Protein backbone atom coordinates (compact mmCIF):
# COMPACT_ATOMS: atom_id res chain seq x y z
CA UNK A 1 0.00 0.00 0.00
CA UNK A 2 2.70 2.44 1.02
CA UNK A 3 4.75 1.98 -2.13
CA UNK A 4 1.59 2.74 -4.10
CA UNK A 5 1.20 6.15 -2.45
CA UNK A 6 4.88 6.91 -2.96
CA UNK A 7 4.46 6.01 -6.59
CA UNK A 8 1.46 8.27 -7.27
CA UNK A 9 3.04 11.32 -5.68
CA UNK A 10 1.86 13.97 -3.18
CA UNK A 11 -0.43 15.77 -5.61
CA UNK A 12 -2.59 12.68 -6.11
CA UNK A 13 -2.68 12.06 -2.37
CA UNK A 14 -3.93 15.57 -1.60
CA UNK A 15 -6.45 15.21 -4.40
CA UNK A 16 -7.62 11.89 -3.02
CA UNK A 17 -8.00 13.20 0.55
CA UNK A 18 -9.94 16.26 -0.59
CA UNK A 19 -12.30 14.22 -2.69
CA UNK A 20 -12.86 11.76 0.14
CA UNK A 21 -13.81 14.60 2.49
CA UNK A 22 -16.09 15.89 -0.24
CA UNK A 23 -17.78 12.55 -0.74
CA UNK A 24 -18.28 12.05 2.99
CA UNK A 25 -19.66 15.56 3.37
CA UNK A 26 -22.31 15.09 0.70
CA UNK A 27 -23.06 11.38 1.01
CA UNK A 28 -22.70 11.12 4.81
CA UNK A 29 -26.12 12.53 5.80
CA UNK A 30 -27.90 10.39 3.21
CA UNK A 31 -26.06 7.17 4.07
CA UNK A 32 -26.80 7.84 7.72
CA UNK A 33 -30.54 8.03 6.98
CA UNK A 34 -30.33 4.80 4.98
CA UNK A 35 -28.73 2.98 7.91
CA UNK A 36 -31.16 4.51 10.40
CA UNK A 37 -34.19 3.42 8.39
CA UNK A 38 -33.26 -0.25 8.67
CA UNK A 39 -32.18 -0.23 12.30
CA UNK A 40 -34.46 -1.47 15.07
CA UNK A 41 -32.08 -0.86 17.92
CA UNK A 42 -29.12 1.44 17.76
CA UNK A 43 -27.98 2.64 21.17
CA UNK A 44 -25.22 5.13 21.86
CA UNK A 45 -22.24 4.68 21.56
CA UNK A 46 -22.50 1.78 19.06
CA UNK A 47 -21.14 2.72 15.65
CA UNK A 48 -23.57 0.39 13.83
CA UNK A 49 -27.11 -0.73 14.76
CA UNK A 50 -27.36 -3.69 17.15
CA UNK A 51 -30.54 -5.01 15.50
CA UNK A 52 -31.47 -4.49 11.86
CA UNK A 53 -35.02 -4.77 10.58
CA UNK A 54 -38.15 -3.29 9.04
CA UNK A 55 -40.01 -2.38 12.23
CA UNK A 56 -40.12 1.34 11.50
CA UNK A 57 -41.33 0.82 7.94
CA UNK A 58 -44.43 -0.92 9.28
CA UNK A 59 -44.83 1.83 11.87
CA UNK A 60 -44.67 4.65 9.31
CA UNK A 61 -46.85 2.95 6.68
CA UNK A 62 -49.53 2.26 9.31
CA UNK A 63 -49.98 5.96 10.09
CA UNK A 64 -52.95 7.36 8.17
CA UNK A 65 -51.88 10.99 8.10
CA UNK A 66 -48.49 10.03 6.73
CA UNK A 67 -50.00 7.95 3.93
CA UNK A 68 -52.52 10.66 3.06
CA UNK A 69 -49.72 13.24 2.91
CA UNK A 70 -48.09 11.14 0.19
CA UNK A 71 -51.16 11.21 -2.04
CA UNK A 72 -51.74 14.91 -1.34
CA UNK A 73 -48.15 15.71 -2.33
CA UNK A 74 -48.48 13.80 -5.58
CA UNK A 75 -51.82 15.43 -6.34
CA UNK A 76 -50.39 18.92 -5.82
CA UNK A 77 -47.20 18.16 -7.77
CA UNK A 78 -49.26 16.82 -10.68
CA UNK A 79 -51.53 19.88 -10.67
CA UNK A 80 -48.56 22.25 -10.54
CA UNK A 81 -46.81 20.43 -13.38
CA UNK A 82 -49.92 20.37 -15.62
CA UNK A 83 -50.74 24.01 -14.93
CA UNK A 84 -47.18 25.13 -15.61
CA UNK A 85 -47.04 23.14 -18.87
CA UNK A 86 -50.31 24.67 -20.07
CA UNK A 87 -49.25 28.17 -19.08
CA UNK A 88 -45.51 28.24 -19.75
CA UNK A 89 -44.94 26.18 -22.91
CA UNK A 90 -47.02 28.49 -25.16
CA UNK A 91 -45.21 31.46 -23.62
CA UNK A 92 -41.86 29.76 -24.30
CA UNK A 93 -42.83 29.18 -27.94
CA UNK A 94 -43.90 32.81 -28.30
CA UNK A 95 -40.60 34.03 -26.81
CA UNK A 96 -38.61 31.83 -29.17
CA UNK A 97 -40.51 32.33 -32.43
CA UNK A 98 -42.95 35.24 -32.47
CA UNK A 99 -42.48 39.00 -32.53
CA UNK A 100 -44.78 40.96 -30.27
CA UNK A 101 -44.70 44.22 -28.33
CA UNK A 102 -42.92 44.34 -24.93
CA UNK A 103 -41.41 40.91 -25.60
CA UNK A 104 -38.21 41.63 -23.67
CA UNK A 105 -40.11 43.09 -20.76
CA UNK A 106 -42.23 39.95 -20.47
CA UNK A 107 -39.25 37.61 -20.81
CA UNK A 108 -37.32 39.37 -18.07
CA UNK A 109 -40.27 39.73 -15.78
CA UNK A 110 -39.79 36.03 -14.98
CA UNK A 111 -36.45 36.93 -13.44
CA UNK A 112 -38.42 38.58 -10.67
CA UNK A 113 -39.24 35.14 -9.25
CA UNK A 114 -35.55 34.71 -8.49
CA UNK A 115 -34.65 38.30 -7.65
CA UNK A 116 -36.08 38.23 -4.12
CA UNK A 117 -35.16 36.13 -1.09
CA UNK A 118 -37.66 33.28 -0.96
CA UNK A 119 -38.99 33.51 2.57
CA UNK A 120 -39.53 37.26 2.20
CA UNK A 121 -41.50 36.64 -0.96
CA UNK A 122 -43.56 33.89 0.67
CA UNK A 123 -44.44 36.11 3.62
CA UNK A 124 -45.53 38.87 1.21
CA UNK A 125 -47.68 36.36 -0.67
CA UNK A 126 -49.15 35.07 2.57
CA UNK A 127 -50.10 38.64 3.50
CA UNK A 128 -51.94 38.98 0.18
CA UNK A 129 -53.51 35.50 0.37
CA UNK A 130 -54.76 36.30 3.84
CA UNK A 131 -56.67 39.28 2.50
CA UNK A 132 -58.18 37.58 -0.54
CA UNK A 133 -58.99 34.36 1.33
CA UNK A 134 -56.49 32.04 -0.33
CA UNK A 135 -54.88 30.92 2.93
CA UNK A 136 -55.33 27.21 3.57
CA UNK A 137 -56.75 26.50 0.09
CA UNK A 138 -55.56 24.15 -2.65
CA UNK A 139 -55.36 27.04 -5.13
CA UNK A 140 -53.19 29.02 -2.72
CA UNK A 141 -50.76 26.12 -2.29
CA UNK A 142 -50.59 25.46 -6.05
CA UNK A 143 -49.92 29.14 -6.74
CA UNK A 144 -47.12 29.36 -4.19
CA UNK A 145 -45.53 26.27 -5.75
CA UNK A 146 -45.67 27.99 -9.15
CA UNK A 147 -43.22 30.73 -8.08
CA UNK A 148 -40.17 28.50 -8.06
CA UNK A 149 -40.95 26.84 -11.37
CA UNK A 150 -42.25 29.73 -13.51
CA UNK A 151 -38.82 30.84 -14.59
CA UNK A 152 -37.13 27.62 -15.57
CA UNK A 153 -40.38 26.22 -16.93
CA UNK A 154 -40.40 29.16 -19.35
CA UNK A 155 -36.68 29.59 -19.98
CA UNK A 156 -35.55 25.99 -20.51
CA UNK A 157 -38.25 25.38 -23.19
CA UNK A 158 -37.53 28.81 -24.71
CA UNK A 159 -33.89 27.77 -25.14
CA UNK A 160 -35.07 24.42 -26.51
CA UNK A 161 -37.40 26.03 -29.09
CA UNK A 162 -34.65 28.43 -30.14
CA UNK A 163 -32.28 25.56 -30.78
CA UNK A 164 -34.66 24.06 -33.35
CA UNK A 165 -33.32 25.17 -36.73
CA UNK A 166 -35.68 27.40 -38.65
CA UNK A 167 -34.43 25.86 -41.90
CA UNK A 168 -36.01 22.54 -40.95
CA UNK A 169 -39.35 24.17 -40.18
CA UNK A 170 -39.21 26.15 -43.41
CA UNK A 171 -38.45 23.13 -45.57
CA UNK A 172 -41.44 21.35 -44.05
CA UNK A 173 -43.59 24.37 -44.91
CA UNK A 174 -42.22 24.31 -48.45
CA UNK A 175 -43.48 20.78 -49.06
CA UNK A 176 -46.93 21.90 -47.96
CA UNK A 177 -47.21 21.17 -44.23
CA UNK A 178 -49.56 23.45 -42.28
CA UNK A 179 -48.05 25.58 -39.48
CA UNK A 180 -49.72 23.39 -36.88
CA UNK A 181 -48.44 20.22 -38.55
CA UNK A 182 -44.91 21.69 -38.61
CA UNK A 183 -45.16 22.45 -34.89
CA UNK A 184 -46.53 18.98 -34.09
CA UNK A 185 -44.09 16.91 -36.10
CA UNK A 186 -40.92 19.02 -36.22
CA UNK A 187 -40.63 21.77 -33.63
CA UNK A 188 -42.23 20.03 -30.67
CA UNK A 189 -40.37 16.70 -30.95
CA UNK A 190 -37.04 18.51 -31.28
CA UNK A 191 -37.74 20.70 -28.27
CA UNK A 192 -39.14 17.79 -26.27
CA UNK A 193 -35.99 16.94 -24.25
CA UNK A 194 -35.92 20.48 -22.85
CA UNK A 195 -39.62 20.41 -22.05
CA UNK A 196 -39.34 17.01 -20.36
CA UNK A 197 -36.42 18.15 -18.21
CA UNK A 198 -38.25 21.31 -17.20
CA UNK A 199 -41.40 19.33 -16.36
CA UNK A 200 -39.49 16.84 -14.24
CA UNK A 201 -37.88 19.65 -12.29
CA UNK A 202 -41.24 21.25 -11.82
CA UNK A 203 -42.69 18.03 -10.46
CA UNK A 204 -39.76 17.43 -8.11
CA UNK A 205 -39.67 21.04 -7.02
CA UNK A 206 -43.32 20.95 -6.08
CA UNK A 207 -42.90 17.61 -4.31
CA UNK A 208 -40.09 19.04 -2.18
CA UNK A 209 -41.49 22.50 -1.52
CA UNK A 210 -41.80 23.05 2.21
CA UNK A 211 -41.43 26.68 3.24
CA UNK A 212 -44.21 28.24 1.20
CA UNK A 213 -46.64 25.40 1.96
CA UNK A 214 -45.77 25.69 5.64
CA UNK A 215 -46.79 29.35 5.53
CA UNK A 216 -50.01 29.29 3.46
CA UNK A 217 -51.16 25.63 3.62
CA UNK A 218 -51.31 25.09 7.39
CA UNK A 219 -53.35 23.42 8.88
CA UNK A 220 -55.13 21.45 6.15
CA UNK A 221 -52.50 20.99 3.44
CA UNK A 222 -49.92 18.79 5.06
CA UNK A 223 -47.71 17.68 2.20
CA UNK A 224 -44.84 15.24 2.75
CA UNK A 225 -42.22 17.86 3.66
CA UNK A 226 -44.63 19.48 6.13
CA UNK A 227 -45.34 16.14 7.81
CA UNK A 228 -41.57 15.73 7.92
CA UNK A 229 -41.27 18.88 10.04
CA UNK A 230 -43.48 17.36 12.72
CA UNK A 231 -41.97 13.87 12.40
CA UNK A 232 -38.57 15.36 13.20
CA UNK A 233 -39.79 16.68 16.52
CA UNK A 234 -42.36 14.01 17.45
CA UNK A 235 -41.02 10.62 16.35
CA UNK A 236 -37.84 8.60 16.89
CA UNK A 237 -35.17 9.25 14.29
CA UNK A 238 -35.62 5.85 12.62
CA UNK A 239 -39.24 6.73 11.72
CA UNK A 240 -38.03 10.02 10.27
CA UNK A 241 -35.38 8.16 8.28
CA UNK A 242 -37.97 5.80 6.79
CA UNK A 243 -40.17 8.70 5.75
CA UNK A 244 -37.12 10.49 4.31
CA UNK A 245 -36.49 7.55 2.02
CA UNK A 246 -40.14 7.49 0.92
CA UNK A 247 -39.96 11.21 0.20
CA UNK A 248 -36.71 10.89 -1.76
CA UNK A 249 -37.74 7.82 -3.78
CA UNK A 250 -39.72 9.64 -6.51
CA UNK A 251 -36.77 11.98 -7.00
CA UNK A 252 -34.36 9.13 -7.51
CA UNK A 253 -36.69 7.23 -9.85
CA UNK A 254 -37.39 10.26 -12.04
CA UNK A 255 -33.74 11.30 -12.16
CA UNK A 256 -32.52 7.85 -13.16
CA UNK A 257 -35.19 7.77 -15.86
CA UNK A 258 -34.22 11.19 -17.18
CA UNK A 259 -30.47 10.82 -16.58
CA UNK A 260 -29.65 11.13 -20.27
CA UNK A 261 -31.40 14.50 -20.58
CA UNK A 262 -30.11 16.21 -17.45
CA UNK A 263 -26.89 18.17 -17.84
CA UNK A 264 -25.33 21.22 -16.25
CA UNK A 265 -25.91 23.15 -19.47
CA UNK A 266 -29.63 22.45 -19.72
CA UNK A 267 -30.10 23.17 -16.02
CA UNK A 268 -28.10 26.38 -16.13
CA UNK A 269 -30.21 27.68 -19.02
CA UNK A 270 -33.15 27.77 -16.61
CA UNK A 271 -31.44 30.33 -14.40
CA UNK A 272 -29.37 32.47 -16.70
CA UNK A 273 -29.18 33.66 -20.29
CA UNK A 274 -26.17 32.40 -22.18
CA UNK B 1 -59.87 33.05 -62.53
CA UNK B 2 -57.02 35.03 -64.03
CA UNK B 3 -53.92 35.74 -62.02
CA UNK B 4 -54.75 39.45 -62.01
CA UNK B 5 -58.07 38.94 -60.29
CA UNK B 6 -56.46 36.66 -57.69
CA UNK B 7 -54.09 39.44 -56.74
CA UNK B 8 -56.94 41.90 -56.56
CA UNK B 9 -58.96 39.54 -54.40
CA UNK B 10 -55.92 39.09 -52.16
CA UNK B 11 -55.56 42.83 -51.77
CA UNK B 12 -59.21 43.20 -50.92
CA UNK B 13 -59.00 40.63 -48.09
CA UNK B 14 -55.79 42.17 -46.82
CA UNK B 15 -57.57 45.47 -46.45
CA UNK B 16 -60.47 43.94 -44.59
CA UNK B 17 -58.51 41.61 -42.24
CA UNK B 18 -55.58 42.49 -40.00
CA UNK B 19 -51.99 42.32 -41.22
CA UNK B 20 -49.82 39.25 -40.39
CA UNK B 21 -47.63 41.36 -38.08
CA UNK B 22 -50.56 42.48 -35.96
CA UNK B 23 -51.87 38.93 -35.94
CA UNK B 24 -48.52 37.67 -34.67
CA UNK B 25 -48.43 40.38 -32.01
CA UNK B 26 -51.87 39.44 -30.73
CA UNK B 27 -51.04 35.73 -30.82
CA UNK B 28 -47.76 36.31 -29.02
CA UNK B 29 -49.34 38.42 -26.30
CA UNK B 30 -52.16 35.89 -25.86
CA UNK B 31 -49.61 33.12 -25.37
CA UNK B 32 -47.57 35.06 -22.84
CA UNK B 33 -50.27 36.71 -20.80
CA UNK B 34 -51.50 33.68 -18.77
CA UNK B 35 -48.05 33.05 -17.29
CA UNK B 36 -47.57 36.75 -16.74
CA UNK B 37 -50.89 36.85 -14.87
CA UNK B 38 -49.59 34.21 -12.45
CA UNK B 39 -46.40 36.20 -12.05
CA UNK B 40 -48.50 39.24 -11.25
CA UNK B 41 -50.44 37.39 -8.54
CA UNK B 42 -47.52 35.61 -6.90
CA UNK B 43 -44.76 38.19 -7.18
CA UNK B 44 -45.58 41.72 -8.27
CA UNK B 45 -48.80 42.42 -6.37
CA UNK B 46 -47.57 40.80 -3.11
CA UNK B 47 -44.39 42.87 -3.14
CA UNK B 48 -46.15 46.16 -3.80
CA UNK B 49 -48.79 45.34 -1.24
CA UNK B 50 -46.36 44.25 1.47
CA UNK B 51 -44.46 47.48 0.94
CA UNK B 52 -47.62 49.54 1.50
CA UNK B 53 -48.63 47.41 4.47
CA UNK B 54 -45.19 47.69 6.06
CA UNK B 55 -45.54 51.48 6.12
CA UNK B 56 -48.77 51.43 8.11
CA UNK B 57 -48.50 52.01 11.85
CA UNK B 58 -50.65 51.00 14.81
CA UNK B 59 -52.49 54.31 14.84
CA UNK B 60 -53.79 53.76 11.30
CA UNK B 61 -51.46 56.26 9.63
CA UNK B 62 -48.37 55.70 7.56
CA UNK B 63 -44.77 56.04 8.75
CA UNK B 64 -41.53 54.11 9.12
CA UNK B 65 -42.20 52.81 12.64
CA UNK B 66 -42.23 49.15 11.53
CA UNK B 67 -38.76 49.61 10.08
CA UNK B 68 -37.54 51.56 13.08
CA UNK B 69 -38.52 48.56 15.20
CA UNK B 70 -36.09 46.37 13.23
CA UNK B 71 -33.21 48.46 14.51
CA UNK B 72 -34.44 49.50 17.96
CA UNK B 73 -35.52 46.04 19.12
CA UNK B 74 -32.46 44.30 20.50
CA UNK B 75 -33.51 40.78 19.49
CA UNK B 76 -34.39 41.87 15.98
CA UNK B 77 -31.11 43.73 15.56
CA UNK B 78 -29.28 40.63 16.73
CA UNK B 79 -31.16 38.56 14.11
CA UNK B 80 -30.14 40.94 11.33
CA UNK B 81 -26.47 40.96 12.28
CA UNK B 82 -26.54 37.18 12.71
CA UNK B 83 -28.16 36.68 9.28
CA UNK B 84 -25.62 38.93 7.56
CA UNK B 85 -22.70 37.18 9.23
CA UNK B 86 -23.93 33.68 8.28
CA UNK B 87 -24.59 34.91 4.73
CA UNK B 88 -21.12 36.41 4.34
CA UNK B 89 -19.35 33.29 5.65
CA UNK B 90 -21.48 31.00 3.47
CA UNK B 91 -20.95 33.05 0.30
CA UNK B 92 -17.18 33.12 0.72
CA UNK B 93 -16.91 29.41 1.49
CA UNK B 94 -19.33 28.28 -1.23
CA UNK B 95 -17.72 30.34 -3.99
CA UNK B 96 -14.23 29.21 -3.00
CA UNK B 97 -15.12 25.52 -2.98
CA UNK B 98 -17.36 25.62 -6.05
CA UNK B 99 -14.90 27.56 -8.17
CA UNK B 100 -12.09 25.16 -7.26
CA UNK B 101 -14.27 22.17 -8.01
CA UNK B 102 -15.55 23.58 -11.31
CA UNK B 103 -12.01 24.39 -12.46
CA UNK B 104 -10.81 20.98 -11.35
CA UNK B 105 -13.55 19.29 -13.36
CA UNK B 106 -12.92 21.47 -16.42
CA UNK B 107 -9.18 20.91 -16.69
CA UNK B 108 -8.72 17.36 -15.48
CA UNK B 109 -9.63 14.01 -16.97
CA UNK B 110 -9.89 10.53 -15.62
CA UNK B 111 -12.27 8.17 -13.86
CA UNK B 112 -12.43 10.26 -10.65
CA UNK B 113 -13.41 13.40 -12.55
CA UNK B 114 -16.04 11.47 -14.47
CA UNK B 115 -17.44 10.15 -11.23
CA UNK B 116 -17.68 13.65 -9.72
CA UNK B 117 -19.20 15.01 -12.90
CA UNK B 118 -21.92 12.39 -12.75
CA UNK B 119 -22.69 12.71 -9.05
CA UNK B 120 -22.11 16.28 -7.89
CA UNK B 121 -25.58 17.43 -8.90
CA UNK B 122 -27.42 14.79 -6.86
CA UNK B 123 -27.78 17.02 -3.74
CA UNK B 124 -29.67 19.53 -5.92
CA UNK B 125 -32.54 17.09 -6.10
CA UNK B 126 -32.61 15.92 -2.50
CA UNK B 127 -35.49 17.61 -0.63
CA UNK B 128 -34.18 20.28 1.75
CA UNK B 129 -35.99 18.81 4.75
CA UNK B 130 -34.41 15.41 4.15
CA UNK B 131 -30.88 16.71 3.81
CA UNK B 132 -31.32 18.82 6.93
CA UNK B 133 -32.64 15.81 8.81
CA UNK B 134 -29.70 13.72 7.62
CA UNK B 135 -27.28 16.41 8.80
CA UNK B 136 -28.99 16.56 12.22
CA UNK B 137 -28.64 12.80 12.64
CA UNK B 138 -25.07 12.74 11.37
CA UNK B 139 -23.65 15.73 13.19
CA UNK B 140 -25.89 15.98 16.24
CA UNK B 141 -25.15 15.21 19.83
CA UNK B 142 -24.66 11.39 19.93
CA UNK B 143 -24.97 11.39 16.13
CA UNK B 144 -23.20 8.98 13.82
CA UNK B 145 -20.08 11.14 13.38
CA UNK B 146 -19.64 11.62 17.10
CA UNK B 147 -20.02 7.83 17.62
CA UNK B 148 -17.39 7.14 14.97
CA UNK B 149 -14.99 9.76 16.32
CA UNK B 150 -15.52 8.47 19.87
CA UNK B 151 -13.83 5.19 18.89
CA UNK B 152 -10.60 7.10 18.23
CA UNK B 153 -11.09 9.28 21.30
CA UNK B 154 -12.15 12.55 19.65
CA UNK B 155 -15.12 14.50 20.99
CA UNK B 156 -17.18 16.36 18.42
CA UNK B 157 -17.95 20.02 19.25
CA UNK B 158 -21.56 21.19 19.29
CA UNK B 159 -22.68 21.64 15.67
CA UNK B 160 -26.44 21.23 15.55
CA UNK B 161 -28.49 24.01 17.23
CA UNK B 162 -25.53 26.26 16.60
CA UNK B 163 -24.45 28.56 13.78
CA UNK B 164 -21.92 25.95 12.62
CA UNK B 165 -24.83 23.67 11.74
CA UNK B 166 -26.59 26.36 9.71
CA UNK B 167 -23.40 27.13 7.78
CA UNK B 168 -22.75 23.45 7.08
CA UNK B 169 -26.32 22.98 5.85
CA UNK B 170 -25.97 26.07 3.64
CA UNK B 171 -22.78 24.65 2.14
CA UNK B 172 -24.55 21.37 1.49
CA UNK B 173 -27.37 23.08 -0.38
CA UNK B 174 -25.43 25.73 -2.26
CA UNK B 175 -22.18 24.11 -3.41
CA UNK B 176 -23.77 21.78 -6.00
CA UNK B 177 -25.90 24.53 -7.56
CA UNK B 178 -23.04 27.03 -7.69
CA UNK B 179 -20.70 24.41 -9.11
CA UNK B 180 -23.29 23.64 -11.78
CA UNK B 181 -23.57 27.30 -12.84
CA UNK B 182 -19.79 27.78 -12.82
CA UNK B 183 -18.96 24.60 -14.71
CA UNK B 184 -21.47 25.51 -17.38
CA UNK B 185 -19.67 28.87 -17.71
CA UNK B 186 -16.21 27.27 -17.75
CA UNK B 187 -17.33 24.82 -20.43
CA UNK B 188 -17.86 27.88 -22.62
CA UNK B 189 -14.17 28.86 -22.45
CA UNK B 190 -12.50 27.39 -25.56
CA UNK B 191 -9.72 24.95 -24.76
CA UNK B 192 -7.61 26.59 -27.48
CA UNK B 193 -7.41 29.80 -25.44
CA UNK B 194 -6.11 27.94 -22.40
CA UNK B 195 -3.77 25.75 -24.44
CA UNK B 196 -2.15 28.64 -26.28
CA UNK B 197 -1.72 30.58 -23.04
CA UNK B 198 -0.01 27.54 -21.54
CA UNK B 199 2.18 27.24 -24.64
CA UNK B 200 3.61 30.71 -24.20
CA UNK B 201 4.43 29.84 -20.60
CA UNK B 202 1.68 31.57 -18.60
CA UNK B 203 1.68 30.30 -14.99
CA UNK B 204 -1.33 28.80 -13.26
CA UNK B 205 -2.15 31.87 -11.20
CA UNK B 206 -1.90 34.23 -14.17
CA UNK B 207 -3.90 31.81 -16.25
CA UNK B 208 -6.66 32.13 -13.67
CA UNK B 209 -6.51 35.90 -13.14
CA UNK B 210 -6.00 36.81 -16.81
CA UNK B 211 -8.15 34.25 -18.65
CA UNK B 212 -10.39 32.03 -16.59
CA UNK B 213 -11.76 34.59 -14.15
CA UNK B 214 -12.42 37.39 -16.69
CA UNK B 215 -14.19 34.89 -18.98
CA UNK B 216 -16.44 33.62 -16.21
CA UNK B 217 -16.82 36.51 -13.77
CA UNK B 218 -20.34 37.28 -14.88
CA UNK B 219 -21.54 33.81 -13.97
CA UNK B 220 -19.50 34.17 -10.81
CA UNK B 221 -21.61 37.19 -9.87
CA UNK B 222 -24.83 35.42 -10.81
CA UNK B 223 -23.77 32.53 -8.58
CA UNK B 224 -22.99 34.97 -5.78
CA UNK B 225 -26.47 36.46 -6.20
CA UNK B 226 -28.12 33.06 -5.90
CA UNK B 227 -26.13 32.03 -2.83
CA UNK B 228 -26.64 35.39 -1.12
CA UNK B 229 -30.38 35.40 -1.68
CA UNK B 230 -30.68 31.69 -1.01
CA UNK B 231 -29.16 32.11 2.44
CA UNK B 232 -30.98 35.31 3.42
CA UNK B 233 -34.28 33.81 2.29
CA UNK B 234 -33.67 30.34 3.73
CA UNK B 235 -36.04 28.78 6.21
CA UNK B 236 -35.93 24.99 6.48
CA UNK B 237 -32.34 24.55 7.62
CA UNK B 238 -32.23 27.40 10.16
CA UNK B 239 -35.72 26.47 11.38
CA UNK B 240 -34.68 22.89 12.13
CA UNK B 241 -31.00 23.37 12.98
CA UNK B 242 -30.71 26.89 14.37
CA UNK B 243 -30.81 27.95 18.00
CA UNK B 244 -33.81 29.87 19.38
CA UNK B 245 -31.89 33.10 19.40
CA UNK B 246 -30.44 34.72 17.43
CA UNK B 247 -32.54 33.61 14.47
CA UNK B 248 -32.06 33.89 10.74
CA UNK B 249 -34.41 36.45 9.15
CA UNK B 250 -36.41 33.75 7.33
CA UNK B 251 -37.30 32.03 10.59
CA UNK B 252 -37.91 35.32 12.33
CA UNK B 253 -40.43 36.55 9.75
CA UNK B 254 -42.28 33.22 9.76
CA UNK B 255 -42.61 33.48 13.55
CA UNK B 256 -43.81 37.06 13.41
CA UNK B 257 -46.36 36.12 10.74
CA UNK B 258 -47.65 32.73 11.95
CA UNK B 259 -47.05 32.74 15.69
CA UNK B 260 -47.44 36.39 16.63
CA UNK B 261 -49.88 37.12 13.77
CA UNK B 262 -48.37 40.56 13.18
CA UNK B 263 -48.75 40.78 9.44
CA UNK B 264 -47.59 44.39 9.11
CA UNK B 265 -44.38 43.69 11.01
CA UNK B 266 -43.78 40.50 8.99
CA UNK B 267 -44.25 42.51 5.80
CA UNK B 268 -41.66 45.03 7.03
CA UNK B 269 -39.11 42.27 7.73
CA UNK B 270 -39.83 40.74 4.32
CA UNK B 271 -39.37 44.06 2.57
CA UNK B 272 -36.20 44.71 4.56
CA UNK B 273 -34.82 41.39 3.28
CA UNK B 274 -35.65 42.58 -0.26
CA UNK B 275 -33.65 45.74 0.38
CA UNK B 276 -30.68 43.71 1.58
CA UNK B 277 -30.74 41.80 -1.71
CA UNK B 278 -31.77 44.67 -3.97
CA UNK B 279 -28.31 45.51 -5.28
CA UNK B 280 -27.54 41.95 -6.28
CA UNK B 281 -31.07 41.36 -7.57
CA UNK B 282 -30.90 44.41 -9.80
CA UNK B 283 -27.49 43.37 -11.01
CA UNK B 284 -28.77 39.90 -11.87
CA UNK B 285 -31.69 41.21 -13.93
CA UNK B 286 -29.51 43.77 -15.69
CA UNK B 287 -26.75 41.37 -16.63
CA UNK B 288 -29.27 38.85 -17.96
CA UNK B 289 -30.92 41.58 -20.00
CA UNK B 290 -27.59 42.57 -21.54
CA UNK B 291 -26.79 38.97 -22.32
CA UNK B 292 -30.07 38.62 -24.15
CA UNK B 293 -29.82 41.78 -26.23
CA UNK B 294 -28.08 40.20 -29.19
CA UNK B 295 -30.63 37.43 -29.56
CA UNK B 296 -33.92 39.19 -30.11
Automatic annotation (TrEMBL), chain A:
It comes from the Bacteria. Its main location: membrane. This is ABC transporter permease subunit. It comes from Saccharibacillus alkalitolerans. The chain crosses the membrane at residues 16-38, 66-95, 107-132, 138-161, 182-204, 238-258. Gene3D superfamilies: MetI-like. InterPro entries: MetI-like, MetI-like_sf. The lineage of its organism: Bacteria, Bacillati, Bacillota, Bacilli, Bacillales. The keyword Cell inner membrane applies.
